[in-house]
Amino acid sequence: MKFLVTKDLSHSRLLAYLMGAVVMALLLYLLMDVVLHAYVIGLDMTSIKSTLFGNMETFEEPMLIDSLLLQVHVDLFMTLFTLLILSSIYIRLYEKTFLMKMILHTLFLSGVAAPISLLAAYIWSEHFVYVWLGSFFLWHTVALLLSVMIFKRLNFK
Question: Is the pTM of this model over 0.70?
């Protein structure tokens, strides 16, 4: 518990290993989340629009609203869970700087914007597909970089 007060991991190597294991699990989750979204929704504009809105030429049905709501619900929960873990470890390991605040704000805003913009694309306008795609990749890229930065800072010996 001394780490919570002093931010010094030298007294508890077990805590460093536990945090490293959690970060490795989050790295695996982030990579598998991209694979899941590539399979379910798609990662290029034509496949995303075809999945969400259907395609009359190929007789594809649009995604059902209950399936989309379930996907958005799971995405929001897992995103917030991942954000909570990454940001709490990152705040404890790094000094408070303007760059740190910008990284965390970018992480939170893009992480929450991704599922909401997917739902907005389905309900209002397909222009939100571009917002979803951008925020989805930004959120995963920043989260992956943050995970690697945390993992490097743990200094396993």
Answer: yes
